[in-house]
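Lab notebook page, bench 4
Experiment: in silico fold of construct C2
Operator: M.H.
Input chain length: 461 residues
Purpose: comparison with the prior construct
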Amino acid sequence: MSTNILMPALSPTMEEGKLAKWLVSEGDEVKSGDILAEIETDKATMEFEAVDEGRIGKILVPEGTEGVKVNQPIATLIGEDESDGGKDIESAMSSIKDAVHAESKPAKPEQAAPLTPTLSPKGGEGVEKKDSLSPSGGEGQGEGDTASTKSVGRIFASPLARKIAEQKGVDLTALHGSGPRGRIVKADVDAAKAGGKPQAKATPATQPTAAAGATISGIAPLPDAKLYFKPDDYEEIPHDSMRKAIAKRLTSAKALIPHFYLTIDCRIDELMGTRARLNASAPKEGGYKLSVNDFVVKAAAFALLRVPEVNASWTDGAILRHKHADIGVAVALDFGLIMPIVFRAEEKGLAVISNEVKSLAERARAKKLRPQEFEGGTFAVSNLGMFGIREFTAVINPPHAAILAVGAGEERAIVRDGKVEIATVMTVTMSCDHRVIDGATGARFLQAFKTFVEDPAAMLL
């Protein structure tokens, strides 16, 4: 009897991915933890591990295939002393064909549903019932195997473990998985079947959610832009997985999070002078080159400590007040946008922050970031100053409750003590989630941020 190896969900927002490369061949023996393939998601390329032992029977999806749906069979796994399970393979191939046929079949006009962001009872929200804005990092999220929902939470088990448990009458809710990320594997079911005493399965912690129970209804789908142009007048560029994820996630965020905006001007002459002096004194080997954005990240971290109400996330039952400033830094890519995180920024010096941001940006452009490096965070900074943008607003990226949009530092005429003088001024605008941050709270944060930016020495106190 063979079991199907399913396309894994390697991030909370992943719905499909590219099977970039197989690292095993048909007939290879594998065990739990072995690397089977490289999967390209909307944000990174990651390795896919085996969760059960056995032998690779049939590779159903060839490497290089794009748009492979999560939970779609991609190969079969044959147990010890078993045949290749021809009927199971035929069934798996049939299910793939059915999925592809259903995906490609056009919907009738009268059946087309409006594009309506919805919110599930558990707090996961999205577009067309799929896009999840729940923060990452909870154990069990992003697993590729089918999981049932119990009152105590989701059960994560491999397909082979589920089949054996069903045949032998083993209750999976009573088992504690020993596989990757706590997944229940064949060995766990065998131990329980043989009389081993399974550990009690812990109740999962409540997962933070991005929005309260609300549904945006009555939104008609937008007309297709192709209706307005002749085919010869444009070039059609198909959406890649990252662009689809950005579109769905930010559409839901903008529709479901009540944004409001606060803007303040910061004089950064002292900051520019401090930056020049520190860069001039940096060692040639193993040194650093500070940017204005490095000071912005550090100042934001200290402002979050001074006004902790902003360093928070919204959930259905409570506001989560975070203990550390984990700041996401927006990085523009040729194919989209990603936000790697500087964790515990309040504990790091400017040189450490500078080198870390550069490393994260380089690996982000190469799609080599690990999920834990860009999922989660407590606050975000988006800086377009290097493009000469004076002022802009940004869309909040859940689970954050705010994002700081930083414009260019430029010389402006200001009035000081009744006299007009020239100063280098930087405009910043904070987008706030009104469910978490009130106007006065956001204003206090920007005042604290302004203090640290205008007088960098204050960050030494």
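Observations: The longest helix spans residues 86-104. The CA atoms of residues 307 and 444 lie 7 Å apart.
Next step: discuss at group meeting.
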